[in-house]
Amino acid sequence: MKKTLLSLKNVSKAFAGKTVLDSLDLDILDGEFITLLGPSGCGKTTLLRLMAGFEQPDVGSVTLSGHDITHTPPEYRPLNTVFQNYALFPHMSVYDNVAYGLKMEKRPKGEIRQRVDEVLAMVQLQDFARRKPHQLSGGQQQRVAIARAVVKRPQLLLLDEPLSALDYKLRRTMQVELKRLQRELGITFVFVTHDQEEALSMSDRVVVLKEGEVQQLGTPREIYERPANLFTARFVGETNLFPGYLDSVAADTITVDILGVSRKLQKPAFAVRNGEQVNVLLRPEDIRVLAPEDEHGLPGKIVERNYKGSTLDSVIHLEDGTEVLASEFFDEDDPTFDYKLGEPVRVSWVDGWEWLLPVELEPVAEEAEGLVADA
Amino acid sequence: MTRWLPRTYLALVYLLVYLPILVLVVFSFNESRTGYSWEGLSLRWYESLFNNRAMVGAMWNSLWLALSAATVSTVIGGLTALALHRYRFRGKKLLNGMLFVVMMSPEIVLAISLLALFLLVGLQLGYVSLLLAHVTFCLPFVVITVMARLSGFDDSLPEAARDLGASDFTMTRTVLIPVIMPALLAGWLLGFTLSLDDVVVSTFVSGPSYEILPLRIYSMVRVGLKPEVNALGTLLLVFSLVMLMLSQWILIRSKR
Amino acid sequence: MHRVLQQPFKTAVLVLVWGWLLFLVLTPNLLVVGASVMTRDPGTFISLPLNLDAYRQLFDPLYLDVFLHSLYMAAMTTLVCLLIGYPFAWSLSKVGKQRQLLLIFLLIVPFWTNSLVRTYALKLILATNGLLNSALMPLGLIDEPLKLLYTEGAVIIGLVYLLLPFMILPLYSVFEDLRQELLLASHDLGAGRLSTFIHVIVPLTLPGVLAGVMLVLLPAMGLFFVPDILGGSRNLLVGNVIKNQFLDARNWPFGAAASIVLTVTMAFLMFAHRLSKRRLGEEGG
């Protein structure tokens, strides 16, 4: 078990009466890559700013390795930030930008030179030391911002949507680069993003936030395969949500009627009673599309197909009107694999991959309707 | 027609704006005493200008006053702009409003109010009263110039400096001030020019102990024509142009 | 106290600037208000008792004439500046971007030169045997020299010359913000040139007009050296009256009351300007 490095306890923060963080607890472990994920306005940036010391909580405490740093100014915290727009000092060269933090520590000249050269080499910018920030590309500026933060050897590196200003391809490169850096440096990374794909692919653990509250904290796999609630399920990845009716509840197992198909499943963590309704969650890649003459599955027809390169995503309307999203990998043996719109098919899913959630009274339903109406 | 009409109009206005200045410069090299007809090239008015010791003294006084007023107002105005930009505090709107009112107030209103104050507190009218008055009317211009620069700059720069271990003061010294340097310079230059040009306020708050150039010119041009003024005006024009070019050059260089 | 110690820099700056403004702006202005309701005193300038004599004196026909004449000249100056400046700013906004900057630069170069000297330069041109007359006479356009100097017209010309950039700059900034698409949209919706001008261009540039009026009208009542140099003794501005009362006649209460008239005019103009901007903001947003 890793030890806790940074710990937030019962933290609340409001701006002009509007609550941004609400009694939030979070422990960040030493050496991990943890991502704060959520839609804009969920409080993830405020959370990061509390850690950096740019904001102070109204209530609650922030501790670093057991020391209370709740009211410590940012310059006295052994952690550094990579800013969303990099915040490189425009009047200083790359070298001076990176050396800035070491000069503040009043390090000897020789040591500064050596450490700056080292870190610039690490981010492959040793030839750009004399340039000014505006003479660099976006990706290079990004690397300077990272170099400037890590040269101080912080215990914790805070990254505030650092890749959001980069184009898609560069973003992918930088994701790999960041992972490599984190491994090499052994520093704890706290990464803020609204991009769920980025969060899943980079993190050891992900914190899903909504309206200032933690929705779920877990590994990317847990978050994706076993979401704690409907919000997480919908925010992270595409989801099919079917109503399920409990036919019988035994000691360890339950029987659920899903779209008329009866399945015997493991009893979920939440309390269930006979006759109750539950939400059944199936990811598009759990869905199997079968030939219309197949004896399994439910009949429906293809209403939409999207070619995605490595997968073929389709929308199928079942006979009762239920909409099903399916995502299938191309079969190498069948290069002509495709559907026509309106083509009849049957739909099934991999037995045992269903994930059950309790029915929530939620305004999200309105949102979903709104989306349909928009479409 | 839509192309040449605006251009002709612009050209005409520029001609009218520059004509008096051109006349002034040309006549400063005129031998004639009356100053209305051309009697040949001469530098005699420049010569008599520099032989006029009171005039040269007033020139130095004015330069020194403008230099100090511009510097003091840039320091105070720059700091004020920083405070307005960075801090939340009570009375911020009031502070902004007061600066705005000072800027919009007719100079003469400011002038008599300062005169009343200086007489009330028993301040001898001279360099100090002039300095206080000039800094007061330059201040809002500096604040506005610097604020404009600050509003266009990335708010996370100060945070980045703090994050890297700089105290509030060190951050201001190493990041904020260098970044707003061009605006400080522009503000300083504006203050310098306003001070050097001021007649209205100076008329009220200056004393016999410290004679300054605009007042000297004022007493010369009130009656009749004085050819020395042509020469002096030309020199002031050249001086302003050099200053302006210099500031542009620094601005352009700082952008690179 | 704890917070004060925490942010010594912030505290120091705020104390400095507040101190400066309170001592050199607020106090002096209160003194002027105070002086305006006191009694003239040859020894100490002002003394008790309090009274409104100074304000009554403003309506003395002799001074009322001066004020109205000053207001008239200031209004004419503003009007002339507007008539020259509006098409100027409009034309300027149609020139290429790079050249625009150069032209603006050229416009403010004279502003960087001493205004007394520039007023004096006008005298060279307007004098009886000055440049204008000596140019017109040989052309046979006039038989005898025009009397230009020491007239109302000369004062207005001088004020326009000094204040024109203050009208043009705010106008230029509203014309620059005026998006070309709006004009195209107006034409597209069937408006002709004139109705586009009345219904789109004028309302959108109104804040600039008011800002320009504010920046021209007020100084045009205060720049006492312009009539001193160009206007002679009959074309006085409010500024001349105030100056005389303070420096020569030593009637402080009256001078202070006259200056309060200027301040009230300013407050009124600032209010109008705010109003016009707010209306535009609401309609636009």
Q: How would you characterize the overall build of this protein?
A:
The complex is a heterotrimer of chains A (375), B (256) and C (285). Chain A is α+β, with helices and mostly antiparallel strands and 375 residues long. Chain A folds into two domains: 4-233, P-loop containing nucleotide triphosphate hydrolases (Rossmann fold, 3-Layer(aba) Sandwich); 238-358, RNA polymerase II/Efflux pump adaptor protein, barrel-sandwich hybrid domain (OB fold (Dihydrolipoamide Acetyltransferase, E2P), Beta Barrel), CATH 2.40.50. In chain A, 25% of the residues lie in helices and 35% in strands. Chain A has helices at 44-52, 94-104, 109-122, 138-150, 168-185, 196-202, 220-225, 230-235, 364-374; strands at 4-15, 18-29, 33-37, 59-64, 67-68, 79-82, 156-160, 188-193, 205-210, 213-218, 240-249, 253-258, 261-266, 277-282, 287-290, 298-307, 311-318, 323-329, 344-349, 355-358. Chain B is mainly alpha-helical. Chain B has a single domain (53-224, 244-255), classed as MetI-like fold (Orthogonal Bundle), CATH 1.10.3720.10. The model of chain B has no long low-confidence stretch (mean pLDDT 86). Chain C is built from 13 helices and two strands. In chain C, strands 1-2 form a two-stranded antiparallel sheet. Chain C is 78% helix and 2% strand. Chain C has a single domain, classed as MetI-like fold. The longest helix of chain C is centred in the N-terminal third of the chain and has 34 residues, at 61-94. The chains are: A alpha+beta (375), B mainly alpha (256), C mainly alpha (285). Chains B and C meet through α1, α3, α4, α5 and α6 of B and α2, α4, α5, α6 and α10 of C. Chain B: It comes from Marinobacter vulgaris.
List the helices and strands and how they pair.
The complex is a heterotrimer of chains A (about 375), B (about 260) and C (about 280).
Chain A: E1 4-15, E2 18-29, E3 33-37, H1 44-52, E4 59-64, E5 67-68, E6 79-82, H2 94-104, H3 109-122, H4 138-150, E7 156-160, H5 168-185, E8 188-193, H6 196-202, E9 205-210, E10 213-218, H7 220-225, H8 230-235, E11 240-249, E12 253-258, E13 261-266, E14 277-282, E15 287-290, E16 298-307, E17 311-318, E18 323-329, E19 344-349, E20 355-358, H9 364-374
Parallel strand pairs in A: 3-8, 3-9, 6-7, 7-8
Antiparallel strand pairs in A: 1-2, 1-4, 4-5, 9-10, 11-12, 11-14, 12-13, 14-20, 15-19, 16-17, 16-19, 17-18
Helix pairs in contact in A: 2-3, 2-4, 3-4
Chain B: H1 4-28, H2 44-51, H3 53-86, H4 92-104, H5 107-121, H6 127-151, H7 156-163, H8 168-197, H9 200-205, H10 213-221, H11 227-255
Helix pairs in contact in B: 1-11, 2-11, 3-6, 3-8, 4-6, 6-8, 7-8, 8-11
Chain C: H1 2-6, H2 8-36, E1 39-41, E2 45-47, H3 53-58, H4 61-94, H5 97-108, H6 115-126, H7 131-139, H8 152-177, H9 180-188, H10 193-222, H11 225-231, H12 238-248, H13 252-284
Helix pairs in contact in C: 2-13, 4-8, 4-10, 6-8, 6-11, 8-10, 8-11, 9-10, 10-13, 12-13
